[in-house]
Amino acid sequence: MFESRKLSQDVTVRVLRLSDASALAGAYVRNRQYLSQWEPVRPEEYYTEAWQAADIAKRLISSEAGDGYPLGLFAGDDVVGRFNLAGIVRGPFESAGLGYWVDSQYAGRGLASATVQMIVETAREELGLHRIEASTLLHNIGSQRVLVKAGFQQIGVAPQYLQIAGKWQDHNLYQIVLHE
Ligand SMILES: CC(C)(COP(=O)(O)OP(=O)(O)OC[C@H]1O[C@@H](n2cnc3c(N)ncnc32)[C@H](O)[C@@H]1OP(=O)(O)O)[C@@H](O)C(=O)NCCC(=O)NCCS
Predict the structure, then answer these.
(1) Could you tell me the distance, in angstroms and rounded to a whole number, from the CA of residue 131 to the centre of ligand 1?
(2) pLDDT of 56-77, one tens digit each?
(3) Mind spelling out the 3-state secondary structure of 58-81?
């Protein structure tokens, strides 16, 4: 499931390991300002190796239970992106949520598009999910483009859906149905 895969000459995607905590904290420090308009307000500890190690540990336990998959993009020793397929619910739903970001220095190279398309393929072929959902701020044109290129359709607008940058903000809702 989610084998390590080369996305470009210098960037690989794979499931996170506990030993990635330091590099991940470094990526959040480097991208703190850049991500601040797209993410929830984070506590100061979020930017430390210890916080990231605890978070990876939790996510890996959850992954073993089949609840989600935490992926990282790597360029050498640096983390240059994060993708989460999370909140997998089986039974009559067979659904998961998707969230992501790419390091500002690696934006515009097709990395998000390639990774989301790989996740969609794996969710369909290996996880057997029926659908994936995602949401974007109304003005996040780049993220909307990533989703539409991967086959997602907008299914609505949710008022005050998520607290981003300290404010409850409206979001466009998207889904992709994997099996007709
Ligand atoms: C959104 C994000 C993940 C895109 O990552 P990326 O690797 O640069 O995306 P890609 O290179 O695959 O580009 C995807 C498409 O979006 C377009 N795009 C990217 N940024 C754009 C922008 N600001 N305005 C318009 N289009 C944009 C690209 O041109 C490309 O479309 P194309 O292939 O038709 O030319 C990245 O910009 C990011 O991390 N942003 C901050 C965090 C965030 O928004 N996360 C998603 C929350 S829902």
Answers:
(1) 22
(2) 999 999 999 999 999 999 999 9
(3) HHHHHHHCCCCEEEEEEECCEEEE
